[in-house]
Amino acid sequence: MGAPMARHLLTAGYPLTAHSRSAPPVDALVAEGAARASTPAELASVSDVVITMVPDTPDVELVLFGASGVTEGAAAGSLLIDMSTIDPIATRSFAERLASNDVAMLDAPVSGGEVGAKAGTLSIMVGGSQEAFERARPLFEAMGSTIVHAGPSGAGQVTKACNQLVIASAVEAVGEAFVLAAKAGVDPAKVREALLGGFAGSKVLEVHGQRMLDGAFEPGFRSALMAKDGRIVLSAADGFGAPIPGFRAVAERLEAMLTAGRGDLDYAALVTLLEDEAGVALHPEP
Fold it and tell me: 125 - beta bridge partners?
């Protein structure tokens, strides 16, 4: 998702320097006018704002504080915006470590997937100071359509954890409803049509419900990444002492996708576990 987000910044006229562990996305951005940096430290040394977009908490820590990391090149007064989805408690620690070097940090995870990243319609949930948020607002507006300053450091990641809790739980619920219908001899497509017109209607039912009926599980958003996000939700809930009994069951289902070798499928494929257990198929065989 980082490459299309960066491309929107280029299109908006911002000078951009790019770095990635994978060369092809950077090659494409350079061909469109970006500069290339060989390390995060080099990138930070020529930037007043650094944006990180990597898979998980340890990746962010490495990019920021590892050898040739951002902190080796960032000037006092610069701004770090982490748009990854990572642990909110670790995020607060990272912000404190950066502040000791006079570098402000915003945590700004996103929702909307690759489609939203390409369209520039991401929902961006932001934690950090109001001053830093106002400084970054024009950048966010180039990448997203819904931008919410949720609160102080870590609030963006807490909001994203809440987002993933709701979405993954809804995907599991839709799958369970469809399999219940199939086992009862009722057409799940008709069930979806009826539910969309009532209080159960949702984007998850609309989009992922259709994926389930079609067996269209190419990502999208991979189950392995949603399972990672599930671990973040569990860690946050444990750290803050919040009960989430319903989601704990969903998190187990996400981990079961990895055990079943389905981590590279879109997380709408959670329904396949239910199909296996129930002995039904919602979608035609490929």
Answer: 148
